Amino acid sequence: MGFGLCAIAVLLSCASIAYAADPNPLQDFCIALPDNKFDVFVNGKFCKDPNLVVAEDFLFQGLNIPGNTSNQLGVAVTAVNVNQLPGLNTLGVSLARLDYSPYGLNPPHTHPRATEALLLLEGELYVGFVTSNPADPNQRNKLFTKYLKAGDVFVFPQGLIHFQINVGKINAVAIAGFGSQNPGVITIANAVFGSDPKINPDVLAKAFQVEKNIIDYLQAQFWPNSN
Fold it and tell me: Binding residues for Mn(2+), per the UniProt record (predicted)?
């Protein structure tokens, strides 16, 4: 993973060059404090007293450890955002390690607050994203896809639906860099069919132009989150 550690630095430096989705910091750093210490929430995190900040506030360990892909999707996401690394607060970047078993899938999802740059370290992935609705109603949403090999980087624009699937016969490993301390994730199938409470089946049946019994079946399934 020596190459991977260098790659993390590259991804984070690229994210810092781009305009991050988060507000610019007004001080050198703002170490995040847990939300449960306060009765109110803010857009971000409360800052730790600078005089109490230690080096460990800027450290995350364990990204070299493979995630457990023994699940329904065959994928594991090890996130390193402000919730895992308080020193990221107000800095506008975060990252994640993604492990894929053979044919493992990171299903269609979006990051509402960040662009993602994905670097493949090992294996082979088929990745892609779909554009937002075109202005011309006669046009369709456009799909951009690519097969990635180790060393390849692919960018998923902020907010657009995207996916990755391991098309190889061995495990795949990737590092993702994000332009936000907390990019967020909306897994499409989970949000649509696994919400709590459930979306009225009549709404979904009409939206997807299928019979209501198909929606009932889909809403009855277990929809795991990949990250």
Answer: 109, 111, 116, 162
